[in-house]
Amino acid sequence: FSFQEITSLLSLYGGQFSGEQEIRVNSPFWILSIPSEEMARGLMKRTVCAKSVFELWGHGRSAGELYASLKSYPVDKMLPYLQSDSTYKVHIHTFNKTLTQAQKVKKIDALEFLPFKGKVNLKNPEHIFWILEDYGMDPNNVPEEPFHLYFGRWIADGQRELIESYSVKKRHFIGNTSMDACLSFIMANHGRVKPNDVVYDPFVGTGGLLISSAHFGAYVCGTDIDYNTIHGLGKASRKNQKWRGPDENIRANLRQYGLEKYYLDALVSDSSRPIWRKGMLFDVIITDPPYGIREATRRMGSQKETVKSAERSTENHIFVSSNYHLSDIFFDLMKFAAEYLVMGGRLVYWLPIYRPEYTEEIIPSHPCLKLISNCEQMLSSHTSRRLITMEKVKEFKDQDQDSYLLDGQYMPYRGHNSFREKYFSGVTKRIAKEEKYNQK
């Protein structure tokens, strides 16, 4: 997720990866080309994957290469941060290795050739410099010397504290499938949500995905077929609580974080039958459709689709519903996004996958939408879900209404309609194996 999040944010702010560096996705350190420090700070105000950003002064595969790189760095770029009336300190961060204090001091002393004129202040310095050392990703095979060394001036930290401050554990209104805070912010960043955007979630549930978008200044709305969830009624999902309280709803969640002013509304609606007027209404669509595991996949109508009237039970406030196959859910979502997204707008959604049958060809497509990224999150040894990001690149025409049926893209994913059965097949096999082992 990290590479795609940073790539999306760089495209939003106008930066890019350095052309001089081979992109090593699994490396803990990346070199980016960012036009200004202001832009770098803007990126770090968004990312939850990156820890910090630095102005790179030197880089090498050995200490000698690092020192040579530092000596060739323009002195006029260094001097504003090394003045005699300034204060500074130097940190050392080693990835996959721990150094003693004596080793750290030795490495810092080796930088005495740099024209530091200010005073050292370990508690509250004006400028902070970092030595970063990469010892690889294998904790069982740590090299004696680092593979890469970097030296730079610290600019800003990322937003990892949002993961804790927006934790679902602290949230007022939750459900069985409320999205993890970290993933919610990653989805908003993949969608390039920005202030004053209108963000829509067609399977809104308890509104977890709306919160991250509202945090970034977007106006948010959503729909869901479940009347009780939209209105905060019925049984609670929280432990030791039987029924939901009178103020447990999506609006209350946004109010909890001071984001109520960005809340447009949440409506009871069937996503397979759009209620919106024709036109490009939404800047971003971010959603997590139901997979049929903890939340049912359903739509209005009887099993034979003969019920045309939206009859509603006065007792439990739900529509008469029928099965809604996963393939239908995602291709309805494609059609909706193609029609209602603005040009350049993004669709970000989760696609459940049975891994033994997965190929990239089964990812739903639409002629109006371009695939931007495809990231995997493991659910079990045999199932996962892919975070799919698509961008609208073509204006929707009437002839695009059912184009997905013509290009062969509808059929490949239909095998995942039984995702629920395949998901639990692994659980059943594991239980049977454990029972057999315990009988020995």
Automatic annotation (TrEMBL):
Its main location: cytoplasm. GO terms for cellular component: cytoplasm; tRNA methyltransferase complex. The keyword Membrane does not apply. It catalyses: guanosine(10) in tRNA + S-adenosyl-L-methionine = N(2)-methylguanosine(10) in tRNA + S-adenosyl-L-homocysteine + H(+). Residues 22-160 form the tRNA (guanine(10)-N(2))-methyltransferase TRMT11 N-terminal domain. Residues 170-303 form the Ribosomal RNA large subunit methyltransferase K/L-like methyltransferase domain. SUPFAM superfamilies: S-adenosyl-L-methionine-dependent methyltransferases. InterPro entries: DNA_methylase_N6_adenine_CS, RlmKL-like_Mtase, SAM-dependent_MTases_sf, TRMT11, TRMT11_N. GO terms for molecular function: tRNA (guanine(10)-N2)-methyltransferase activity; tRNA binding. It is found in: Cytoplasm. It comes from the Eukaryota. Pfam families: Tmrp11_N (PF25904), UPF0020 (PF01170). Its EC number is 2.1.1.214. Keywords: Cytoplasm, Methyltransferase, RNA-binding, S-adenosyl-L-methionine, Transferase, tRNA processing, tRNA-binding. It is an enzyme of class 2 (transferase). Part of the heterodimeric TRMT11-TRM112 methyltransferase complex; this complex forms an active tRNA methyltransferase, where TRMT112 acts as an activator of the catalytic subunit TRMT11. Belongs to the class I-like SAM-binding methyltransferase superfamily. TRM11 methyltransferase family. Catalytic subunit of the TRMT11-TRM112 methyltransferase complex, that specifically mediates the S-adenosyl-L-methionine-dependent N(2)-methylation of guanosine nucleotide at position 10 (m2G10) in tRNAs. This is one of the major tRNA (guanine-N(2))-methyltransferases. This is tRNA (guanine(10)-N(2))-methyltransferase TRMT11. It comes from Aegotheles bennettii.
